[in-house]
Every structure is written in structure tokens, then in C-alpha cells.
Protein: Aminotransferase
Amino acid sequence: MIRINENYLKLKASYLFADISRRVTAFQQANPDKKIIRLGIGDVTEPLPEAVVAAFHKGVDEMADAGTFRGYGPEQGYDFLRDLIAKEDFQSRGADISGDEIFVSDGAKCDTGNIQELFAGDIRIAIPDPVYPVYVDTNVMAGRTGQNVDGRYEGLVYLDGTRENGFIPELPGEPVDLIYLCYPNNPTGATITRPQLKAWVDYARENKALILFDAAYEAFVRDPELPRSIYEIEGAREVAIEFRSLSKTAGFTGTRLAFTVVPKTCMAYDSQGGAHSLHAMWNRRHTTKFNGVSYPVQRAAAAVYSPEGKAQSRALVDHYLNNAAIIRKEMTALGYDCVGGENSPYVWIDGKMGSWDFFDMLLSKAAVVCTPGAGFGSCGEGYIRISAFNSLANVQEAMERLRAVLK
Amino acid sequence: MIRINENYLKLKASYLFADISRRVTAFQQANPDKKIIRLGIGDVTEPLPEAVVAAFHKGVDEMADAGTFRGYGPEQGYDFLRDLIAKEDFQSRGADISGDEIFVSDGAKCDTGNIQELFAGDIRIAIPDPVYPVYVDTNVMAGRTGQNVDGRYEGLVYLDGTRENGFIPELPGEPVDLIYLCYPNNPTGATITRPQLKAWVDYARENKALILFDAAYEAFVRDPELPRSIYEIEGAREVAIEFRSLSKTAGFTGTRLAFTVVPKTCMAYDSQGGAHSLHAMWNRRHTTKFNGVSYPVQRAAAAVYSPEGKAQSRALVDHYLNNAAIIRKEMTALGYDCVGGENSPYVWIDGKMGSWDFFDMLLSKAAVVCTPGAGFGSCGEGYIRISAFNSLANVQEAMERLRAVLK
Structure:
């Protein structure tokens, strides 16, 4: 008899975006004339940069000619892209990362979800709260947790993000082996300073722990004092894997390209204490279960790093950062405490009432969709996330409506 | 201390293609003037169909305009593609599959590798030999096997493919829960008849087993008596998941699009005997760990199903089938027993000596690269695989050279 992986039965159904969708649909049906403005999901709205589009077309044309056609490429990505990423995203910032430490993939969601396969089943895992649900769910599926009790899984070490710590959790009070960090943070928009990040790297080095650093929003960092990569911190090459994506950097949410950095100096251990290269293990996983990213998409991605592509991508991010600044300014003026909205596309707002109550109020009175913070973990209760991913006109109109409702 | 998944240590290093590459490189260096013809790896060589290229460009153009731009799409694929696949690949052949049973992905390698996550750790798995290495390796990584002893992993039930059974293994002599089948077969090129496939479906229904049916080469089936989908067999909707790909169908090895069919009637069981929908479980896995295929690639894929796209893709497959027929005819005329090469792009040849000896002979005397059958499992020893994926001129020249060497 074919039996299931019963860990799936522990998963709490992900009601967050389904719930939002249901409530928005009901509201629209009851108010068919109202124009709803969506500042909920973190999806980009602006078209691909021109340089990217031109390179994408060129890549497609190469596939149309027998002389330039490409079949299977290297699973890890073409060298033309890996070397460019290493140079532009890392070496240019003083981070010692080489092209063959870059693993190109079709999404950071896949990579952050799949990486846990490399580790033992009984490691101790530290998970921030609030948090992107993929980190938790993929470990539940793999059997590294117990049951969900009152919104938290048994067996995980939760790192609380609170107003008091500015949503930068303290180091864990008990030993942990694997640590998920995400900065600029989704959902809170909080950023981490170099000294704060160094404390985590030092902790990992002292405890032979590993940090999984999700830097999907690094392009939004404009403050030169803030790190954009964990490899800007001394010693991180030994204890950190970093996840990046072009989704928010260059509008690739529908085009799909991301990459994971696994330094060759990054080790994990067997039960006898023997050290094993995580680069070699991820390479084995990647080549066994993945066949590389679409060639024209890799050409499109390479154009993000051209002089034109860099300027155009920066303009895209500027657009969203401007929206974020408007949201933060308006909400602050209305008397709400905010985190994020600077060096980040997300504004995390203390709603001074239940997350879903605030969500319902904004929807019913202003026809504006946000995301209830409670959907990201119990520390998110009482907060909402407003996303800057929309047109300037829509953000301005949403803020006018909020002013009318909340003033 | 961060500890590794020690199952990775059981993996036999995959020397096959690395070994081939090393020997080919050494030969080329010693014979710089010789033109090597590669009939080894199963990678397509001909450009994308015109209709596909046109749709691909159109999809890219949509991403360049704010009015038509697409961000995150449905993880399972857009309905325009899922419905088309269901209609053209299944309903048109009498297989009762609906669009929402199609999960679009970026590769059959990913899907055949990831599907095992849905199942318990201690199920009994039947694996054909010879076989595509991904089925075995992904189960080794997940801990469903013991050590590798003399080329076979402890704990797996191997289904021997031999000259006597025409490389269609008999039903297992001991109970199994999960069965991997691939027809037309990689590497042997063998095809399965309806009665033969029905015997497997009946076995699965009687034993509450599940069949994972890899149909990546179904487009090469031209004999109307042969099944192209397992869902042409009565009862298969209850006991089979099917994997498809456009890689060989329409030249997508570098473009990347595949799909997995999980019928809603397909169940697996918990330890209490309770039935669970594999459609719901795969949907949970797919939405948690994957973010959908690039939008322009989905548009390109949809064009494969247009009248022009169908004709052009068929012409592509015809081209490779013609090559396969030439290879089979020549090798047969030279006195070699062959399987495949009809309704399949692979010709599986009894070399009448060791696989690697035959490989070395073809390389050194004819500068032709094949794949040693021993690389696909112990039942492959003594055989070689010749692939039809090349230009007609190269195949003809390779056969002339083989004639001179082997006659």
C-alpha cells in the first residue's frame, strides 16, 4: 500500500492569502462600483527594463537558429551569468565570492524551500517570527517539527520580532544549528546593521551553526552603512548561504530567475564530526533535481548587470522606494508607528487593533487591501503590512483614502 | 553543530557522463584533427519551431508594457496552457484528464525527483534496471535505501530489463508500493503495449500501489496501437501519476517546460489506512516550493499546441525518428541486435562485448560518441545507447564510419 509522508498532515492550511482573496471578492461583489487598490501581495507591477527586454528577445532569436540554438545548459547556470553576478553583486562590494559559488535557479522560493534537504532530520532550527511561511512549512514537510500548537510548531526555536527589538531578534537563548534570517525583512521591512549581522555571524562561528540569509530585497538598501550581502561580514563565508532573486530587483516575478550563493568554505558535519562541503552537496542536489534556467531568461538576467540595465533596474527600485516613503510618511502623520519603508518596499504598521480588524476596516471603508500581520506568525498580531508595489497614482489615491478614514 | 543529511554519503558518484567527457576530451587532444560526432547525451539539436519562437517573442513583448505585464502567475501554470494540454494531449486521445489536474513545471527532472517527497520513508520501491538515474538517486537522498553494494542499493526492488523480456520487466515477485515506469524507455528505447501496461495498472489497483509513469518521449510514438499516456488504460486515474515534457517533443531542453498529471482520483494512504488525495498533496508541495514557469515560456509552450506548432513539432520529431531508423537499420545490417529506434529516439544495441570496451572502440576508431549501457544499471552491461539527436548529415556520417569499423 502506497503510504503518504504524514508530516504533510501537520501543516496548517495556509489561509492567509486565500482568506484575503475571499474577503476582497466578497467586498467587490457587494460594491461592484468601488475601485479596489491592492497593496497586499509583494508582487511587482512595472514592466521589465528595456535592456532586459532587448536581451530576452535576442536570446529567443538564438533559439530559432540551428547555429546558435542551445539545448541543455549547465544546471548551475551559464558562466556568462554566474561570473557577472559574482563580480557585480559581490566582488564590487568587497565580498569574496567567485562565479562557481553562484547557483542560478528559477526562484528563491525553490531554493529557500529545497536547501533544508541537505541537513539532518534532527537539527535544531531557529525561525524568526513574523516570517515568510516557506521556511517553516518546508521543515514541517521534512519532519523536523512536531504538531502545530496555538500557531507554533513544536520543536522549532522561534526568534521573536517585537516593537522593543525593532524586529531584529536577539540571539537564541538555547543552542541552535540552523538559523533563517531575512534582511531587508519580509514582512516587516526592518533592516539589519553591520554590527547586528556580525553578532549573528560570530554566533554561528562559535556554535558551528549555519545561517540561511535571504537577501531577496537587498536592491532596496540605499543606506551605504547597511550591508547588502552577508558576505560583507568577516567570517560569513564559513557559516552562511545567501539567497538572491531578480524578482524585486528587476521586475522578474513573472520572468523567474534567482540564485543561491554557497561558498566553498562553508561546511556542515556528519555524526562523527567530519566536515563536508555544502557547495559539493548543493551541487549534487542541484544537478540531480534541476535542469537549469531557460536560456533566454539567463540572457535577460545578464542584461540586468549591463550599464543600461543597472540604471533601469535602479529606476524601477527607486519607483517602489518612493511609494514606500509616501506610505510611511502618511501613516506616521496619521499617528501610526511604522517599521520599514526605508531601504525596503514594505511598511509594517502597528494598527493599534487586531490585524484582521484593521484589514477589514481598510477594505470596507477605503477599498484598500493590505496584509494582516498575524498571517506571518503570532508576533505579527496587531500589525499590518502595506506593500509599495503599485503605481504612484494608486499609492497616492490609497493614501488619500486612508487619510479620510483614519484621520 | 549543523549536521548533514548523511544519506548523501551513500550516493555513488555519478561517473557516467563525467567519464565519457574525460575520455572524449583525451581523444580530441590526442587527435586534434578528428571531427567527433556525438550521439551520446539525449539533447536536441534543432531550433525551436517557428510558431513557438513567434509566441515566445510575443510573451516577452507583453512583459515590456505596463498594460500587459505579468508578475507572479499561478504556481500550477496559467489556465490557458493547462486547459490546452488537457484537451490536446489527453482528452483528444480518450484520456479523461482535466486542466486542473495538470501541474506545469520547468522540468520533468525536477518533477520526477521531487515527487517522492509525498511518500512515507519506508515504502517499498520498484525501480527498473537499466534506468534514468534520477529515480534512484532522489530516493537515496531521501533515505529510502541502504548502502550501494555491487552497483545496487539495498532496500530497492530492481526490475530487470533483459533481452529475454525485451526490456519490459515482469511484475515484481514481492510486494511493492511505488513503481517507476518509463515508456518509450530511456535508455533502451523499448515501448510498452496496451496489454503490458494494463497488467501494471491492474497490479497497482490490486496492491494499492502507485505508478510513476515517465512519458517524456511519448511524442515519438507513431504506432497507433501503442499507448502514449497511461491514462489511455482503464483504471489508471486511480493509481498513476504521469510526467511529460516539451524537451524532446518541441525542442525545449534549453527553454524548459514540463508538466505532471495528478488525477484527483489518485489516492495514497496514511498509517491508519485513511485515503489522502495526491492532487491536494502535490498542490501543497508545488505552491510551497515553486513559483511557476516564466510567463513568456508558457506562451511559447501554448504555441506547441496550435495547428502550426503541432505540424512543426511533429516535423522535428520526424527528423529524429528518421535518424533513429537509419541507426537501427545500419546496426542491424552490421549484425547487431537492437531494441528501440522505432517510436523512440534511442537505439539500444547489444555490443557483444563490455559496454565501455564498445564505447572506447567507437571513439578511438570512428570518433563517434555513444553512451555505455552499464552507466544505467547492471542490466545495461554489454549494451550501448545511440541517440538520434543530431543532424541527418552527422548521423549519416557516423553510420558510414561505423560501417567501416564494424563490418
About this structure: Chain A has a mean pLDDT of 96. The longest helix of chain A spans residues 307-333. The longest strand of chain A covers residues 240-245. Chain A touches chain B through 80 residues (CB under 8 Å).
